[in-house]
Amino acid sequence: MTVDADMLVIGAGPAGACAAILLATAGWRVVLVEQHRYPRQKVCGECIGAGNLALIDRLGIGPEFRRLAGAELRQVGWMMTGSTIRADLPSSPELGRAYGRALGRDRFDALLLERALATGVRVLQPAKVRALSGTAGQFECDIIGVATGADRAANPRAAARVLTASLIIDAHGSWENGPAFGTRRSPRTSPRAADLFAFKATFHHTGLAPGFLPVLALDGGYGGMVVSDHGRTTIACCLRRDALQRLRARHRGVPVGSAVEAFLRESCSGVRDALGSATRDGRWLTVGPLRPGVRLQYPAGVMPVGNAAGESHPLIGEGISMALQSSALLVDMLTQRRCAPIDVAAALHQQVVYQAAWRAAFAPRLRLAALYAQVAMRPALARPALGVLRRWPTLLTHAAGWAGKASESSQNPTFIEETP
Ligand SMILES: Cc1cc2nc3c(=O)[nH]c(=O)nc-3n(C[C@H](O)[C@H](O)[C@H](O)COP(=O)(O)OP(=O)(O)OC[C@H]3O[C@@H](n4cnc5c(N)ncnc54)[C@H](O)[C@@H]3O)c2cc1C
Predict the structure, then answer these.
(1) Which atom of ligand 1 is found nearest the CA of 40?
(2) Domain segments of the chain as ranges
(3) Lower CB density within 10 Å: C or N end of the chain?
């Protein structure tokens, strides 16, 4: 039986690109499908924790990452109304006390994709995986070219094709529906007050100190600011659906991004100070609804990584870490066997082992992020938290470490083969 690829990877965010690079380096035939042309902007706070630096080196982009990224992130903060508490961010002792850095997703994702091409990954872009069928060993992937801009005018009927692959990695993220599998479609869900809507904009000439990473505690949401590469400052936040509805009612007729920016300025004096004479670079981007949680149930042979497997509240800024590290976890498991499982029973066994390893590595981070998020979004909890942090600011250092910023908890999890 011949297939076009050992592995088809859906989505070239950090999770998909990382899996593709590691598998191609191990000699697998990999096809990576990405619906957007790069470079592209993405709603994200763009901080990459110190615990990823070894993996970034393993991916072969370490020197370029260090050349491009912003200043080392050495301080964390808690900003609320007129107060700002500061504390040290933990570093990674294994890497000579290295610190996390911030790099715009337009650059980071393009860097990973370039590396994927260099390692022999076949990249289809812009192209979208619409549907999957078949079983482990012989999946059929229905892929359609995505025509954009001038291409769309010149060629309105984008080419469709079917590729076969032994296994599938689903790295399509979590902010839009993934491809249909057979007759299984993404479930329709009704709106909830707790749904999150995320926003991001980039500014130049802000007053924010490079290397400082303040978390913003907002009434009905949370956010963060950081100076990333080339002096750009990224501001990203999440608002609950009910808080956003109230905000829109107060700012009728105003673009939602401008209403969110006004809300951030009025909520935190730290944001007002940082944005004093800043200029915004482009528009506010938005995505949603976000529903943090674990989503590991997939058909045998289709394995989720990154946000497709599980999403933490973005407050802790660990989504890129989990994307990279979950891919490394899966690839290490697959490559220990030296060949792709080609039957359903083998794929099912690997699925179960991977799910257990994923939960052990990442579920505690999701729970902790949910706890921090509930505190940050509720002034009745955030105010006492501010009082405690004012007294013991080093708690912020520990909180960042527990969430994955310190090397102990963010080391790349290694896979331990189960004895049959
Ligand atoms: C407000 C906010 C702030 C954040 N801040 C941080 C932070 O500071 N640090 C951090 O580490 N994390 C942060 N995150 C989380 C982080 O952005 C995500 O966890 C991360 O992007 C997940 O990576 P991924 O590769 O799983 O998915 P994504 O980055 O979403 O990539 C998925 C890719 O798949 C493509 N795709 C989707 N469907 C298809 C299809 N059918 N066919 C082909 N391609 C497809 C998409 O175009 C996309 O490029 C933040 C998130 C938010 C919302």
Answers:
(1) 49
(2) 5-46+104-186+292-373, 51-63+71-100+190-290+378-412
(3) C
